[in-house]
Amino acid sequence: MSLLKFVEVAVDSPGSGNRTFTYSMPSGLSLELGHSVVVPFGNQTKQGIVFGVSGTSDLDSVREALELTDSDPLIDPIRLELARWVSQQYFCTLFQACSLMFPPGARKRKSVWLSVASGVEVSELKFGEFQTSILKYLSSRKSAQLEKVVAHFGERARGSVTRLVEKQVVVRTVKESSVKVRVKYEKLGKITKSGKSALIEGKLLKAPKQLGALTFLTNEEDTVHRLATLRGKFGSSSINSLISKGYLDQEQLEVERDPLNGKLYTPAQPVSLSDSQTYALEQIYELIKKPLIKTRAVLLHGVTGSGKTEVYLEAVSLCISRGKSSLVLVPEIALTPQTIERFSSRFPGKIAVLHSGLTVGERFDQWRKIKANEYQVVIGSRSSIFAPLNNLGLIIIDEEHEWTYKQNDGVPRYHARDVAMQLAGLTSAAVILGSASPDIESYQRAKRGRYRLVELNHRYRPDAVNGSSSRDDRLLAEVNIVDMRSELKSGNNDIFSRQLVAELERTISNGNQAILFLNRRGFSSLVQCNSCGYVAKCRNCDVSLTFHAESKLLICHYCAQKRRDIEKCLECGSDSVGKYGVGTQLVTEKLNKLYPDVVIDRWDSDAIAKNSHYGELLDRFR
């Protein structure tokens, strides 16, 4: 046994905790730290991640690892240590912690699918109303995932499904599933020497489409064209015939799915910094240049417009000059377009983007390129803290006080800021925590010396044309609080106060723009019966459903469960059902009625379907 090599594997099993399990390495298979493998586990096979490799084992009997799922390691040793910390800190399994660092499609999952048993006629069965509803749902489809059924009917559907399976009315099937994503290739057609000779010798005079294709390729500056284009122009049979005759060669070219492809940014030069910005930069420079300094974070507390982003840009510039990479976190996907624009203008061709708003293919390609050191800067939301950046020198967390840096859904839950501090400790990277209103924990840590505290108390206006900056003495926005109860008492039943309407009219008449913020999407936040008080709630979450006027649906903003709008109360049958509360759809409708000649845009996740639309809306507003 001592001659064999052994691996310690974190297995994808809920009961595995933060333990690893010993397996022998198959002959002819070389396993390294971070490799994804398939191993036997009990009477099943499971995916796992290699956490250790050794030449000996104290165990008398060891099972053999079965196969690799990826030829290259998915996770580097530093991030394996980070995964160990995440597992202990947030009470999840080692494998769950590792899965945060996987590229799309790397995790192999098993899912339960349900279907009505062959030969069963649902209309002839006698079950309760709830079970019959489930059967009708399944019979309207070939099959459905158990989780989809539970999402539709609520948690009690699990027990009903189990009983239907026991009665052999429903068939339960376990399938392995993963997001299918791989490198994308495009087939190209190129004329060969034989093809050129055939053209000269007139061999294709009786095949006009083939002749046309070769003539087209010869006359074009670029003699290589997409096969799909050639097939569309000259017909598939003609192109296939040219390939079989050896007149046309097929080539394969990798196509990068780049979310920034086609984006043009005006190059920007660095601007001169104020004294306070220069001091802030000196504090950050020291941490970047001296990795052994124990304090690794700077809390950059700057008022709105104080030039925190200029400090970020200069710090990233230093990292790039020293051959190090940088990670920039923003709290919302909606903020990435403007952040990308600032950084891409300064560092063209060096920026990668990672967030859930990208397509699976885009995330996969960005992850691979980042791991291959093709980008020096990564910009993204909280999940990008796990990006496979090598030689990390700087982590920037903009608006560090925002709650969106906390992952509250699913397992594992984590706080990106705390993960960033741990990652900085493992990589000796510097961390910038930027905010105009710091999180109370961060501010207390800075006051106690765990972070360096740097304050930017004045606003500055950079001039990108001449590279200078000047102090901006404009006061911060004045805040007026209007008590809507007083508005109601004085006869104003509208959702807008008189003062807000007056300010909007003044702004519009002056040719300026206005932004109205509201923390709830949809039309009405509450649907309630006026007779018995019944409130339409989510079956899963027991929270009130929000009415969406455009789709005429009631939607849960926690789990996304959808129901048709109700005209009659589901409890007492009364048709006196009211809709209360205010959402962005209602605000937009009211504004359109107030100002029919003014262009009004709504910006929420319902109106902005794709990430690219954020940038389009910003451009319209500018």
TrEMBL record:
Q: Which GO terms describe its molecular function?
A: 3'-5' DNA helicase activity; ATP binding; DNA binding; hydrolase activity; metal ion binding
Lipid biosynthesis listed as a keyword: no
The terms describing its cellular component in GO are: primosome complex
EC numbers listed for it are 5.6.2.4
* Xref: Gene3D superfamilies: P-loop containing nucleotide triphosphate hydrolases, PriA, 3(prime) DNA-binding domain
Q: Which PROSITE patterns match?
A: HELICASE_ATP_BIND_1
Q: Which SUPFAM superfamilies match?
A: P-loop containing nucleoside triphosphate hydrolases
A Gene Ontology biological process in which this protein takes part is: DNA replication, synthesis of primer
The reaction(s) catalysed by this protein are: ATP + H2O = ADP + phosphate + H(+)
Pinpoint the Helicase ATP-binding domain residues.
289-456
Q: Which CDD domains match?
A: DEXHc_priA
* Top EC category: isomerase
**Is this entry keyworded Cell membrane?**
no
Sorted keywords for this record are:
ATP-binding, DNA replication, DNA-binding, Helicase, Hydrolase, Isomerase, Metal-binding, Nucleotide-binding, Primosome, Zinc
A single Pfam family, by name? Zn_ribbon_PriA
The name of this protein is DNA 3'-5' helicase
